[in-house]
Design goal:
Mean pLDDT of chain C: 83
Oligomer: heterotrimer
Low-confidence stretches of chain A: none
CATH class of chain A: Mainly Alpha
Shape of chain A: globular
CATH architecture of the largest domain in chain C: 3-Layer(aba) Sandwich
Chains: A mainly alpha (284), B mainly alpha (295), C alpha/beta (281)
Radius of gyration of chain C: 23 Å
Low-confidence stretches of chain C: 27-33
Shape of chain C: globular
Number of strands of chain A: 2
CATH class of the largest domain in chain C: Alpha Beta
CATH architecture of chain A: Orthogonal Bundle
Order of helices and strands of chain A: HHEEHHHHHHHHH
CATH topology of the largest domain in chain C: D-Maltodextrin-Binding Protein, domain 2
Helix content of chain A: over 70%
Distance between the termini of chain A: 62 Å
Largest interface: A-B, 91 and 90 residues
Number of helices of chain A: 11
CATH topology of chain A: MetI-like fold
Distance between the termini of chain C: 80 Å
Number of helices of chain C: 10
Order of helices and strands of chain C: HEHEHEEHEHEHEHEHEHHE
Strand order of the largest sheet of chain A: 1-2
Strand content of chain A: under 5%
CATH superfamily of the largest domain in chain C: Periplasmic binding protein-like II
Number of strands of chain C: 10
């Protein structure tokens, strides 16, 4: 009797676990299949390059891709030096229990959890109004920089920490200054980790919508300077889906382009990470 | 990785300059949180001092044009959507992790994990769009009007499931193999091993994932905005449309002035407080696990 | 050693990329300091029209850029006051508290009730509309339609369409029992065209434009007057409004040139194309 109930329990559990896996796979395949099914037919080089017409129902996403690229570039150009400097400081110049380092780490952890819409509020109040940048690619990029900074710092710091202590000790034994050790030995060794961090930050920035609505705005023209308002891909999808009757086909294709870009970015990041671990395992 | 107590060995000017510029960069990164909080307070100040925080709970309804700013329906909407999705996503996420680690053949396990990672990378606006064109019409055919709390919960579940699953999987993988080997040696069945050994020993990791998932669910904006109908009300059942705090900010920020704007910043502060609470809870748990394992 | 040279190369490449990308965009903005920019923001009813007027204005006035942001009439007022926009777009007449601003009407528009094209209902009385929006009637069967729950689509606060609708039907926003809250007109049309049992109200101009482009929506007559651009023109349509451009102070230079242009006969064809009525004083 006990044995029987045990078998039932075991089979039940197995069924439950397999059922869960299937029930998650179905909506996932549905989502991806739906995007491909509706988005693929319109996808062409012309769609990627052309100007949007008639509120985005017709035409392509050329200027939107350019704006997205610019917003993300501003974000990375600002976030990279700050992130790199902070990560270096945290990993090379502070001990784990040091007050200053702990404070900075703690505040970055909190910052990582702040909802993106709150960053949007902050960006609107600080960059658009207080600094007078208005709705512009610059405001959007700066807001995103604040948002990706915690992820960037964490990944880069981890990649510095992963470097074997021997390298630091040997450098010190050779009488190389700490600055030179960092710039000439640790920095090159951490490059793959740095790239992974950048790419992850880039992906997060590219997927963001809420923080951009009030900072970079809706204008879907080809931007001429960083002070112009520019529409990001994700905002274009949102606008087509919510505000434009008959906008669904192009929203599908834009979503497909965005997901495709993000997928490429993530694959690239994991490829670098894989390559890096195999390189590190090789005897030198 | 500091080796010596005096952090600079060579005392050239450039080394000092380098250290101080790094310190300044670190300060600017750490100070960012302070800046965000200061600005949120600065913008909410007019309402806090002139009307008082209590009013956002006691006003009658959300009618910004009539100077009536009650946030409670939005708070209940936010909490219901987040909790509902956690109730679905937590078991699904943990079972998925178990599937990957114990049940699936290696080939399937690899691809299943890859799929979940891909799911984690899909932007929220794409989830929202899919919810709007696929899920909402399905719900509308079943029980009108369609945009509803249910739609929000289902979409949020899909979005936070990867967080929970990936963290749960990582913490299950970290368990010492000896636990499972001993259990097998003692003749425990697979489910008994999981139920009596795996889940209790990895519970802190599982909880961390759930808290981080909850934090993400509370802060999610675009997907919720697109599928929930955005009617300000306390929902009486799961098919009623709702509006969350985040959606409210996204919808009304564009034209808000004076007190209205202040109240939106207050809701931003509230949201941030909630999320910080859950994130720090997760962090505390994470430190505990590291501590427990190194003992 | 290999990774070392790689590292230097990569970081240099990154730097070059950063400076190139930013340089391309920063340089022209400083070089072309003579380029003047006008920022318009506000009513979603007016945004598509002003976008086209802006394009035509740019064609005749090189060295200018017209940026149009939408978000509702209240945003137009707010952005104009705090200086985020040079010109606000407001789809109603200025109210007494806003008399310190300068308004110039460019066109007339009406607000019409829309249903899905497949809905058999041909006409609704004002009382019926009031009952639907306050939740006293919640099934189309109660007023001779199909057996289906009514999905009530309402406008978000801060939209002048909502204000005019409430004022005309003598309703208070507190009494309205809505199922979906929408922002832009297009969002309303999208919601109604996607739901056979929905009722909503939007700008007649936008609705006629979209209906003529094949979307399944139908405008209902209001108080026996057909909701069309024709009845707005003759002044018979009860729910009509001026579309106004607002500035903080007396318009000067470029702002004045643009507003004059938007009021001139040169843009009448654009106004007709968007199903609005040009303003004549």
């Amino acid at each position: 009797m006990r044995l029987l109930s045990k078998t039932i329990r075991e089979t039940g559990a197995t069924l439950l676990v397999w059922g869960t896996a299937t029930s998650i796979t179905i909506p996932f395949l549905w989502l991806i299949g739906d995007l491909l099914w509706h988005g693929w037919p319109q996808l062409s080089l012309n769609f990627v390059l052309a100007l949007p017409h008639n509120a985005g129902r017709e035409g392509g996403i050329g200027p939107i891709l350019v704006s997205t690229g610019l917003i993300v570039s501003v974000c990375m150009v600002v976030a990279l030096p700050i992130g790199l400097g902070t990560a270096l400081f945290l990993s090379e110049y502070t001990r784990n229990n040091h007050m200053y380092g702990r404070l900075i780490r703690g505040s970055l952890d909190v910052l990582a959890g702040v909802p993106s819409i709150v960053f949007g509020l902050f960006g609107n109040a600080f960059f658009c109004q207080t600094l007078g940048l208005g709705f512009s690619i610059l405001s959007g990029g700066l807001t995103l920089a604040c948002m990706v900074l915690p992820i960037l710092i964490r990944t880069v710091e981890e990649s510095f920490r992963a470097i074997s202590q021997d390298q630091r000790l040997s450098a010190a034994a050779l009488g190389i200054s700490k600055r030179a050790t960092i710039l000439l030995i640790l920095f090159p060794a951490a490059i793959p980790g740095l790239l992974v961090g950048c790419i992850l930050g880039l992906g997060r920035a590219m997927a963001e919508t809420a923080a951009l609505i009030f900072t970079s705005g809706y204008v879907d023209r080809m931007p001429e300077s960083l002070m112009d308002s520019g529409r990001a891909l994700s905002i274009h999808i949102y606008d087509l889906a919510m505000n434009v009757a008959g906008g669904n086909p192009n929203a599908y294709t834009t979503a497909l382009v965005l997901v495709g870009l993000l997928l490429t970015i993530n694959l690239f990041a994991s490829w670098i990470a894989d390559k890096w671990t195999t390189l590190n395992q090789l005897p030198t | 990785m500091t080796l010596f107590s005096n952090i600079i060995l060579s005392h050239s000017k450039i080394d000092f300059l380098f250290l101080w510029s790094l310190r300044a960069l670190a300060l600017s990164a750490g100070g960012l949180l302070l800046l965000v909080i200061v600005f949120l307070f600065h913008e909410s100040w007019p309402y806090l001092t002139q009307i008082g925080l209590a009013n956002v709970f006691t006003d009658h309804g959300w009618f910004p044009t009539e100077q009536s700013y009650q946030l409670t329906p939005m708070i209940s909407g936010t909490i219901l959507a987040a909790c509902g999705s956690i109730f679905l996503a937590a078991p699904l996420g943990i079972l998925s992790a178990l599937f990957c680690h114990f049940y699936a053949p290696p080939f399937l396990s690899y691809w299943y994990r890859r799929m979940i990672e891909l799911l984690a990378g899909i932007p929220s606006v794409v989830f929202g769009f899919w919810g709007l064109v696929v899920l909402v019409p399905v719900i509308a055919a079943w029980h009108p009007p369609g945009p509803s709390l249910l739609a929000g919960i289902l979409i949020l579940t899909l979005m936070i499931l990867p967080t929970i699953m990936l963290i749960a999987h990582a913490s299950i993988r970290q368990l010492p193999t000896i636990y499972i080997q001993s259990a097998t040696a003692l003749g425990l069945s697979q489910w008994a091993t999981i139920w009596h050994i795996v889940l209790p020993t990895s519970r802190i990791g599982l909880l961390t994932g759930i808290f981080l998932g909850l934090a993400r669910a509370l802060g999610e904006t675009m997907a919720i905005l697109m599928v929930c109908g955005n009617v300000v009300q306390h929902p009486s059942h799961i098919f009623d449309p709702i509006r969350t705090l985040t959606a409210n900010i996204a919808l009304e920020m564009a034209y808000a002035v004076d007190h209205h704007r202040s109240v939106l910043f207050i809701s931003g502060l509230l949201l941030m407080g909630l999320v910080i609470a859950f994130v720090s809870l997760a962090e505390i748990l994470r430190y505990k696990t590291t501590y427990a394992l190194t003992q | 050693m290999r990774s070392f040279t790689h590292g230097i190369l990569l970081s240099r490449l990154l730097l070059i990329w950063a400076f190139l990308v930013l340089g391309i965009y920063v340089l022209p903005s400083t070089a072309n300091a003579t380029t003047q920019k006008l920022v318009l923001s506000g009513s979603s009813t007016m945004a598509p029209l002003l976008l086209e007027i802006g394009k035509r204005f740019e064609a005749t006035h090189p060295e200018t850029r017209i940026d149009v942001q939408t978000g509702g009439s209240s945003r137009g007022i707010a952005d104009t006051i705090n200086g985020l926009a040079d010109i606000g777009m407001v789809s109603r007449a200025l109210n007494p508290q806003e008399q310190h601003l300068h308004g110039s009407a460019v066109a007339h528009d009406g607000i019409g009730i829309i249903l899905h094209a497949s809905n058999p209902i041909q006409e609704l009385t004002n009382t019926q509309i009031q009952s639907i929006y306050t939740g006293r009637i919640n099934n189309w069967q109660q007023i001779g339609g199909r057996e289906a729950t009514i999905t009530v689509v309402n406008k978000a606060q801060g939209r002048s369409t909502l204000d005019l609708f409430l004022h005309y039907f003598q309703l208070s926003n507190r009494d309205i029992r809505a199922h979906v809250i929408i922002g832009d007109n297009e969002q309303g049309i999208k919601t109604v065209s996607g739901n056979p049992h929905a009722i909503g109200y939007v700008s007649i101009g936008t609705a006629q434009y979209d209906a003529s482009h094949g979307l399944p929506i139908r405008l209902l007559p209001l108080h026996k007057v057909p909701a069309s651009i024709e009845s707005v023109r003759t002044g018979n349509f009860p729910l009509s409004r001026p579309l106004t451009l607002v500035t903080k102070s007396q318009p000067t230079e470029l702002t004045k040139t643009f507003i004059d242009f938007a009021q001139s006969a040169e843009v009448h064809d654009l106004i007709f194309k968007h199903y609005f009525v040009p303003f004549q004083d």
